[in-house]
Amino acid sequence: MKSARHVDICFSPALYTSYHREGNLVVVIDLFRATTAIVTAMANGAKSIKPVGDIESALACRENGFVVAGERNGDKLAEFDFGNSPLEFTSEVIHGKHLAITTTNGTLAFAAARGQDTIAAALVNYRAVVQYILSGKQDVLLLCSGWTNKMNIEDTLLAGKFARELLSYKPFYSSSDSIAIAESMLDAAGDNWLKYILEASPRLKGKYELLKADMAWAMQEDMASVVPRLKGDMLLPASDF
Could you give all domains of the chain from N- to C-terminal order, each with its CATH number? Predict the structure, then answer.
């Protein structure tokens, strides 16, 4: 495989086909909250996690012994065992369990990348993801889950952070304007992402009381060393491959 490795950022699953490169590694990002919840659940002992696009399919997983988690527009679905808060997935309730999860945005990003080598990334497993990427040879597409197929601020910031670090290593390069956009936002946010996000995003400012504990958890860097990787339609620890 070629030694030079391309890095790109796709701001939304709706744009995925325009950014897709055959054989690339897709790094799905949904900072608030799906990939943070997925990483947290796996770090706390979930045996497997199945991202599911729709409510009915997620509920049907119960017949195969899964516990189910789901939200729409930030709110827990009443018939589900869990919502999408990473704080719900403690080791006491998730260890040894198989989890199916459906969310407004994050699980749609996994669906968009179906068939590609795909991992889940968040700040809580940031360093583990960087090391995993560096250990490989693939081009890298940082796929932001966004919000209802639109670009969002928080995923773009995290994608910019990953891109900036990867591009500091010699094998990586980029020919994409997306990198410049994300890095400009990263510079504007400085060291206080949450302040920047809440000042810039009416959507998240309006949901801050609902999400503030989850946001605080999601903003903690390197709380977990696990990298969830898709095998078929199931996320498993990359170390198991």
Answer: 5-231 (3.90.1560.10)
